[in-house]
Every structure is written in structure tokens, then in C-alpha cells.
UniProtKB/TrEMBL annotation:
Belongs to the phosphohexose mutase family. It comes from Spodoptera frugiperda. Binds 1 Mg(2+) ion per subunit. Residues 182-289, 303-440 form the Phosphoacetylglucosamine mutase AMG1 domain. The keyword Acetylation applies. Pathway: Nucleotide-sugar biosynthesis; UDP-N-acetyl-alpha-D-glucosamine biosynthesis; N-acetyl-alpha-D-glucosamine 1-phosphate from alpha-D-glucosamine 6-phosphate (route I): step 2/2. It is an enzyme of class 5 (isomerase). This is Phosphoacetylglucosamine mutase. The gene is LOC118270446.
Amino acid sequence: MPPSSLRVVYAFAREMHPKTTDVFIQYGTAGFRTKAILLEHVVYRMGLLAVIRSRVKNGRTIGMMITASHNLEPDNGVKLVDPDGEMLEEEWEAHATKLANVSDNDLEATTMEIIQEVKADMTLKASVFIGMDTRYTSPRLAAAAANGVIALKGTPKEFGIVTTPMLHFFVKCRNDNSYGTPTEEGYYEKIIGAYKNMRKSLPTKGDYSPCLYVDGANGVGGKKLKNVKKNFDEEELELHLFNLGGSGEKLNLGCGADHVKVTQTPAKGIPSTPYQRIASLDGDGDRLVYYYTDDKDKMHLLDGDRIATLLASYITELLQRCETTEVQLGIVQTAYANGASTKYITDTLKIPVQCVKTGVKHLHSAAHKYDIGVYFEANGHGTVLYSSKAKNVISRIAREGDPEPREAAKLLSQFIEMTNETVGDAISDLLLVETVLCARGISALQWMQLYTDLPCRQLKVTVADRNAIQTTDAERQCTSPEGLQQRINELVAKYPSGRAFARPSGTEDIVRVYAEAESQLEADTLAAEVCQAVFDLAGGVGARPEL
Ligand code: G16
């Protein structure tokens, strides 16, 4: 494509999506995320980049999701999805950041520079799938995304309001039709079909009850569960849906997976029934945590670590029943994983476990290294990846094995079918969890009794520049500012079983602090002390955190 045809890139920008702010924006943990009013030019430009990416990938479809996931309503964001349904390749994040920050006058030249650098053949077709969450700012941003695609003569396809993992699924299916059909119906058919098939072999037993309350975070996930619910009779899964939005309640406010996990308090808007299992989704349906309150109204959280250990132990059991040693399973966590979960994985489950940096992209690529990789962040973001080798071994046993192993392999095949392998998916994960609880015949209380978490606390600190904090060792150690790690070490040393770290968030303009210790009071105090250290040494702004 000669440079003259890029003029439309500038024309669209100037006339429809001008850059009206000089605030620097960076492609972070999960794409660009900030106040929605600062994003229109960014999303338009990501439409351009998605077309270039599609052409570099020989015309395969790229995804664009308009969402700020767990963030509150005034924020929004955009993330790009690669052809296999995975997060954008990390090397391209620099192109994204560069393109998002140049002036309108430099946009045409910078677009050309990127095209040349990545050697995109601009004569090829380009296809971009666009989805959005329920935020009122999302339609406008989705339109900007489509304009970016059109400006470079790509073909946008808009899916309207869908969960983030649905969009990832559609992209994967469009590029690999053996995975499924790239429509919402295709998604339900695959995932719900597998659940129903599995439940035919796994009738309700023991202390498992198919009655489940769900907190939809007033976002898209809850809405989509209304469609899911229609497919089940009460014996298969009795869903009671709350926080579905639409009555003036705010997205993620006082509810949703992030609220439940971080504040360790129940979601509002849900009747309190002692020991009732409650599943809490986040705003775009890619995270899931469970909890229940006991007869003294104390909340008990079953987070991403619990989900990882539950799924991994069930898959391990099925592999044993398949009588195969050809398939190795591993778990991937981040520094936020509760120390007790890591100990349980190593000492009781005897499964290899690895710790990587926060961000699904890091967990996903680490999980690919195992035949079956189970990855979950403690915040409930995760899935299971099955290699072709694992799938081949399991389907061979399902076809040719002896009766016992054949039965186990058939169950495992359905479990694989139920998994959205592209990214963490609250709906798919919910069905996986319910399947395992049912297969084991256990209640939420019994699930909780598998191991005891160390008390922990997660807090936020506001600093002038969150990038003043640099980390290493999967974010468990600070390398800058000078003296901060030494101070954290001194604080941690005061508490038996204490552990703490600080890292800059990639989705909010803050520093996150995590601490765990033997008692809740100690974990709370340690977290507050580390917040003070961050505030003092890394340029805190506003009021100094209190102990
Ligand atoms: C996103 C990422 C997650 C990450 C979370 C918080 O989740 O996909 O991997 O754990 O942000 O990231 P940070 O601590 O860097 O702010 P979501 O559900 O908001 O898309």
C-alpha cells in the first residue's frame, strides 16, 4: 500500500477521533485502561494496529475487546486478542503504546513506520472481531475501534455485548474451526453441551447440592448466565442470579469477584443463607471466585487458588483412572497465591507448581509448557490448557482403552470440551467447578476444609508515579526505589510465616501491596506497614496510610 492511502488514517483521526489529551498511556497488564473519556483516540488507533496485526498473521482474525473488566464504571479499556485467542504478543505492546501516544499529525508516519517494521503486507485481507462490555461508554469506543479497522481497509465484525472470554473464543474458532463455531450459540453449545453430557454420568451425590447463587457484578457475565440457566433443569444446575445490572446498580460496586476477593466481604444484593455456595463473577465475565457465609455470618472465600487446586486434583484423579503416565500436569500461580495453597499443591497433591508475574499473558505462556497446565491467579482469573499430546492420549484411551480407563478418558474429554482454553472464563470455570464438586459429592464447606489459608490482606497505595516501583523474581522483590526491599524485609521478619510484596498495578493508577501472616491482625498490620514504606520511599501522595 503506497503511503498516500494512509491519509485516511489521519483524516479519520482528525475528524472523528482526535487526540485531546497529552496524558501518556501504556499497554499494561490487560491492554490500555483508564478513564473512558481519555480513550477514544487510543481505541481508534488500536483498530489500525489490529488490521496490521491481522495482515502480519496472513489475514487471520484478531480480536478487540472494549472493557475495563474489574475497574469501576467510569473507566474503560481495550485489549487486543491474537489469532489463537490469546492475549496480544508481548513484543507488540511497544507498538501499541507508541501508536497510542503520538500526535494526530504524526499518526500517519508512525503507522507507516510500524507497517514497515513488522513487514505487514498491506495488500492482504484483514479481519477484526470487536466485542464490548456493558459500560455506557463502550458503544462509542467500539465504533471508534471499527473506524480504525475501516481506515486501513480491514473488515470489522461487531459482536455487541459479550463477555471477554466469549470474544477470545470467537477469535480462536474463526481461525481454527475445529475448536467450535464463532458465535454466542456456538459457545453455549460447546460448553453447556459438555456440562450436560458429564452430568449424565455424574448424578448428584453426597453433600453436593446443585443450588448455586451467582453474583453477576452488574455486568455482562450475569446477563449471559440468564441464557445459560435456561439450558438446565434443577437437578443439573439450579442457578439463582443476582446483581444483573439494569436497575441503576453500578458495575463492580460493592459486588463482583474483585470486591469479594480484595475486601473479603460478601457481595451486596444477595440474600444471606448460611453455607449457601455463592459464585461471584467480575464485570466482563473473565474471573470467578466462590464464597459462603457460615451460621455466625463469617465469610469464607474460595478464590482462584482453591479453584486451581480443585480442578488440578480432579484432572489428576481422572488421569490416574486412565492408567496413563504419558501426560504430566502442572500448576501456574502468581505471588498473590496464598502460601498455604502452594504448600498443599506441593506436599499433598504432589503437583509441580511455578510462580510467574501477574497478568494472564504470563500465566498462559507458562502453562503451555506442561502437557496439561492449570493456571489461576488468586483473584479468580484462570483456565486449563491441554496440549495436543494430552488430547491425543486421552482420546486414544477413550476409543481403545479397557472399560475403566475408557470411562475416565470419556469424562476427561468432556471436561476438556467444557474448558475455554483461550483465557480465564467465569462461565466455563463455574461449570468446571460445579462438575468437580458434584463428582466428589462435596459442599463448599468440605471444599474449604481441604486446606487452611494463611490470613492475608491486599491494599492499595497512591504514589506520584507507580513506575517508581520496579520488581524482579516474579514481582516478589522490589529493585527500586532504593531501600524499599530492605525495609519490606525488616517488616516481614517481625512476623512468623510473614510474607509481603509491593508491585505497580497494570490496570489502575496505584501500587498494590500484599501481605500474609499467621493471624489476620498480623497480616493486616504487616500490609499497612508495607503501605507506609511504599508511601515514604516511592513518592506517596495524599494522606499517609494508617496502621
Ligand atoms: C486484569 C488481568 C489480570 C490481573 C488483573 C489485575 O484482570 O487480566 O491478569 O490480575 O488485571 O492486574 P493489576 O494488578 O496489574 O492491576 P481483569 O479481570 O481486570 O482484566
